[in-house]
Amino acid sequence: MLTISTVNVNGLRAAVRKGFTAWLDATDADVVCLQEVRATPDQLPPEVLRPAGWHTYHAPAEAKGRAGVAVYTREAPEAVRVGFDTPEFAASGRYLEVDLPDVTVASLYLPSGEVATERQAEKERFMAAFLPYLAARRTAVESVGRSMVVCGDWNIAHREVDLKNWRSNRTCSGFLPEERAWLTEVFDGAGWVDVVRRLNPEGPGPYTWWTYRGRAFDNDAGWRIDYHVSTPRLAERAVKATVERAATHDERWSDHAPVTVVYDV
């Protein structure tokens, strides 16, 4: 079995103060993908940068205090790659992949966007560059008999069942028609698989992010924007998916919850 968890930590140093380390110590995961780390490796305490029993790899953003992704693995990877061959995003702290035996695991932090701003334009440029990479990457890994999963914060709710208040968010970044169509193209065009939705075909949710504003968490008014997106053969081997939602609002160490999938590899 291969167990993979992914979570947007909303600032790793803050998450550590709130309970991330205890979660990491307790997890059964073989691989943990982190997004929105924000800190550079030199800003992290030793027990977070190199925790016992883990090999850790970071791709911080060139812009200080922004983005940043990481992958923690129990087994040392055969190779590690940062970025996806697009100069604009090479040092943006948004993509990191590692090769384990037979499976490549990537941590993705897709830009969040904001309608009618440069942030949305950046998101659109990222999406335009990332889709052909995904198509080519699937072909490449499958041609040598490997599988791949891209874990992370994709910042798009794909369908109405993927967020509670979908009617009021139809003109908001993260649920725009063109963003949803792009994600459909990832699945139907490029042939990748939404693993959690395959295991839970109906919905609603399971939600993975709840704003800190108001009582969104208590009312489960969330969005499902954190995904395991895998090549078909690996998706067929997924046997269990869990959103590790905190028991109470006060026990949260991020505004996202870890999404954990067990694969029978």
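Next protein, fold it too.
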Amino acid sequence: MEIRPTTDQDRDVFVDTLLTAFGIFPEAPTASGTVWWSAFEMDRNLLAVAADGRPVGTAGAYSFELTLPGEVLVPTSGVTAVGVVPSHRRQGVLTAMMRRQLAELRGRGEFLSVLLASEALIYRRFGYGPATYTQKLTVPRHRAALAVPRARGAADDAAGGSVEILRRAECGEILEDVYDRYRRAQPGALSRPHRWWASGAGQPPISPAPRYVAVHRDGDGIPDGYASYAIGEPGTLTVDETIATDDAVFTALVRCVLGHDLVTQVVFKHVPPGHPLRWQLTDFRAGQVSDDTDWLWVRLLDVPRALTARGWFTDGELVLDVDDPFLGERGRYLLTVRDRKADCVPTDLAPDLSLDVSDLGSIYLGGTAPSTLVRAGHVRAHHTDAAALADALFRSDPAPHCLHWF
């Protein structure tokens, strides 16, 4: 078997092999020629070819920026399009592709890789750990009233702002600009390069699928938030995503969609765990949570570089013993945080925590408390204070969240 990089000339073969692996047929392009794979970067993809010349596996990567705690923007690879055709599964094809891909990412000087896992059992063995989470929130229309805030007047919400209803085709530039401002301040968020918007790659509202968009403007008329939605049967208004630069703007957009006539329920597809929306409802039980799931998985390729890149909110020292069985590596590092910056160097000191690199990926953005993994039996705390110290160090404010589908 050969694993080789692809070029633009391999696009059709790559896509056909990928679709065969997933057992789906090509979708028809839209009137604009859009398909969800329009943003593939063929110079970053790999094709596994059997000895008889048949393509049997694919693995790809996108070039993104990831926002780390402390509003730090770093380049990262978004692993995608990973599949093996059914006739060649469990023969080492996937493992060989993932090993080759990680080597190439390191060769590019990258220290982080992320993905969305189609199956939770697959990617931990390659060093990835779930790092952000998302929920679906369903609110019956007849129970959708928002409570008057007790700590401040309702008039304080997005004072001076307004909401305008537009169609997706009318506001592409607005969506692109507002999302970009949002993602720069939101830990766990990924960039959406212009080519994604230009080609309509991905899911709504990036794709040109028919959508209404509630656009919020501040007192000066500048867009600072949006909610993309569609109404389907039986009377369900589904919000693809709500993007806002602050909580007051979010509330104004929520009030708009919850007040829509001739619908029976409003479904918010992506709400961060712990979001205050349920508390804003007059009837707390009206907000029904479902599809509580992982979203972005993180893989550290260079532990010291990754730990010194992000921002920190508490001073302290922690010795981490990190095992990376897939790459056959193990390292012990002294993490020292002072004044929101970290230093991370190899050390022979006794460890505070011993953990797998996938567990380090889970806690890296602050979305998973180290103490949770200690209690689950995955991370070993070598003394009673270690988990609490790690919780304080790795926390993120705000909590990480990712909306982007790739």
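About the second fold: The longest helix spans residues 93-107.
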